[in-house]
Amino acid sequence: MCGIIGFCGYLDAKEELVKGLAELEYRGYDSAGIACFTEQGIEVVKSVGKVEGLRNRIPAKMETGCGIGHTRWATHGGVSEINAHPHTCGSVTMIHNGIIENYHALAEELKETGRTPVSQTDTEIAAMLLDSLYQGDALAALRGAVEKLEGAYAFCILFADQKDVIYCIRKGSPLVCCSSEEGSVVASDMVALLRYSKEYFVLPEFQVAKVTKSGISVTELDGTEVSPSMLSIQWDMSAAQKNGFKHYMLKEIHEQPEAIRRTLTPRMKKGRYLLPDFAEDGIPDTVFLQADRIVIAACGTAMHAGMLGRILMERLLRIPVSVEVASEFRYADPILDEKSLVILVSQSGETADTLAALRLAKEKGAKTLAVVNVKGSSIARESDYVLYTHAGPEIAVASTKAYTAQLAALYLLVFRFAYVAGKISAEEVSGYMKELDGVGELIEKVLERKEQVKELSKRLTPVQDLFFIGRGLDYALACEGSIKLKEITYIHSEAYAAGELKHGTLSLVTGGTPVIALATQPEVFGKMISNVKEVRARGAMVILITKEEKKDGLESGIFEEHLVIPFCRDIVAPFAAAVYLQLLAYYTSSYRGLDVDQPRNLAKSVTVE
Ligand code: M6R
């Protein structure tokens, strides 16, 4: 939520900020703004809408080597120029990612100092607070502010009397920093650092980064110098670009075979048997052996990956596993102890609710293991153990390759756990692992059939409502198919456990209602087909997804469209089905002429609760 960037160096800062904002735009695109030091003082330019609009407003003659930029996902106050960042009060100009929860009480207090906000934002109140505390000593003002501010924040701050210096501090929200020959850069995400350096550090919470063109110094709030640990980015600029694809989402869908290979390969130990191995991840088998229950906490698509993981875990491990919506989990007073293993699943590793769930699990003494894509992210750093998915940067708001890489990571966890717990033999694990190893190829085969999905999507383009149905693993997939379609096509859709439909929702199925039915699992295949017939009898337009081997035995007339999963073992069929669902959402959104990569009201990284 919200992308922030600061640049101080030897290049044209306004240009660098705008380039960085374009790369961070997936984090929010309600408005954008920059503030730069110039000979005339601090100049602020803002505009409602996307970064391109801001670019057109920035005076070409503005000369600057240091400034800050922001792309907004509105939380407090509507989408307007006045609410766009940066916000200024007196000598303070700043940008913010996060939410100041006690902003209202602070605003009341600050009234007495004669400061009144002009916007409806919580950020402006933070600027007012800092201005009231600033008397030439940035650290002292920040110390005072940190004591008073409640909520989450990553701030980049300019003090009018400290030309060409940016101060940064964070709590909860992310901020990464790097230095290079061109200057010093701070940003919400390393995609905006890549053009400068592959070496970066995550600013630790409550430490202050002082950014100048000659480098970044980090201190505690009391001024004690610290040297943050450096990290390396494994990928380069091309990984964060469209590379000839029309949209990031389509590119990321096509990257799945490679992304999954990157998840699997480092963990595949070849010997007499092919076994999953987490030695390099530093995850000992005791983590599994000591667990008598597992909780998976996540949000959105990551939670859907968890739903699928849960079914496999219970099936192979025979211990209780639950999947929790992270935002509910934290207020549910969950029953956890030191024998509980809590698995957090997150692409960004910054989702505020998942992070809060992690902290709660730790407080309750549970062991925590994160399945995360972004290296060095908060969830990765705070968990006891982390299994990186290595899917590479995911820019489209709709998650695709991160999801299938999460599935691959969860499969690895289940297989290792079941093996060390003696629930399945080395031979069986090896058999499963070989199937998993072939998932990249399986997805490539599905991608070869994308023209069929493209054609079929034309039928969904004018639709208002539709349903996804499935049982077991297919129900988890139905949930994922539904969120993908909703978020980028704006078509109302519901995912239903196929057997549950007749307990109320079937009344919504009438002539022509599209129903996407997933029937990839043999143990429920017959029942699924009965459910398909039930909706067909009410006139539904059925799009059926089955495996190749079921193709010939299907009764005629039970579907209008049929998507076929190439031959594979049942356990890996969800990967192929997921790709069909992603393509369906992608092409439907495209035909509807929508902004596929940046759907309305959403943002990629949800760092507010
Ligand atoms: O970064 P995370 O995986 O923690 O994000 C969780 C959800 O916000 C995310 O999966 C969201 O549901 C996607 N936009 C769905 O495509």
Fold and architecture overview:
The protein has 609 residues and is α/β, with parallel strands linked by helices. The chain has three domains: 3-233, 4-Layer Sandwich (Glutamine Phosphoribosylpyrophosphate, subunit 1, domain 1), CATH 3.60.20.10; 248-437, Rossmann fold (3-Layer(aba) Sandwich), CATH 3.40.50.10490; 450-591, Rossmann fold, CATH 3.40.50. The protein contains 19 helices and 27 strands. It has an eight-stranded antiparallel β-sheet with strand order 3-2-4-1-10-9-11-15. The protein has a seven-stranded antiparallel β-sheet with strand order 5-6-7-8-12-13-14. Strands 19-18-20-21-22 form a five-stranded parallel β-sheet, sandwiched between helices. β5 (87-89) and β6 form a beta hairpin. α7 runs antiparallel to α15, α13 (401-420) packs antiparallel against α14 and α17 runs parallel beside α19. 55% of the residues are buried. It binds 5-amino-5-deoxy-1-O-phosphono-D-mannitol. 5-amino-5-deoxy-1-O-phosphono-D-mannitol binds at residues 299-302, 346-348, 351, 354, 397-399, 483, 487, 605-606. Residues 299-302, 346-348, 351, 354, 397-399, 483, 487, 605-606 line the site of 5-amino-5-deoxy-1-O-phosphono-D-mannitol (M6R).
Provide a short characterization of the protein structure.
Helix content is 35%, strand content 25%.
